Amino acid sequence: MAIAREPADAPRYARHERRTDRASWAPTVGPGMVLGLIGTAGVVVSMFLSWRGNDVHPSEIPFAFLFDSTTTSRNPSLLIALIPLAVILAVGSLMPRAGGARIIGGLGTLAVVVLFAVQLHDVFDRIPGASVWDQLDAGFYVAAIAGVIALVSGFMPSGWTHRRRVDSEADVDADYRRDY
Fold first, then answer.
1. 3, 40, 42, 105 - which has most CB atoms within 10 Å?
2. Who contacts 175 (Cβ-Cβ below 8 Å, separation ≥6)?
């Protein structure tokens, strides 16, 4: 077995990272950021679409319906859950190292979608011949797809990079001599 070694008189170069007091973040577009923004847009669009047959929008669905299918109250609406989730997703998409926010926003959106479907199933299970799948409308599906996309985006890099300056040993020695 052959081993290649450096000649004895070869100059040695070491790499040192120069640390500064302020962090420098460079925004670059990454897959987590793109998917997070798509998920955010999907949640926002679903707020304006009908979630249930007969043109029932999230502003007309009581938040309590997610936990009690027999509720009669109208306020607050389902928007009280969807608006904060959209904000969390937007912040998670635009902030560096905020994949956790995208995961929380995606899980929250999926929780709202699943709870809505379960309660709607409970309502239409009492009616002979009625099916939940016939009652769900485009807004429900857009929110479900947006929640899955947002959840997946939380496990991908957001695209923000930390800038570091790497100097050779000679530059570090020159800076040391200049400072002291």
1. 105
2. 167
More confident: 126 or 34: 34
Q: Helix, strand, coil proportions of the chain in percent (round to 5)? A: 55, 10, 35
Closest to 136 measured CA to CA, from 127, 148, 128, 124: 124
- Provide the pLDDT for residue 101: 94
b/e for 130-145, b at 16 or more Cβ within 10 A?
eebeebbbebbebbbb
- Amino acid identity of 4? A
The C-alpha angle with vertex 37 and arms to 35 and 39, in degrees rounded to 5, equals 70
Backbone angles phi, psi at 2, to 5 degrees: -95, 140
Look at residue 165 and tell me whether its pLDDT is greater than 80.
Answer: no
Res. 1 pLDDT band, cuts 50 70 90: low
Residue 28 pLDDT level (bands cut at 50, 70, 90): confident
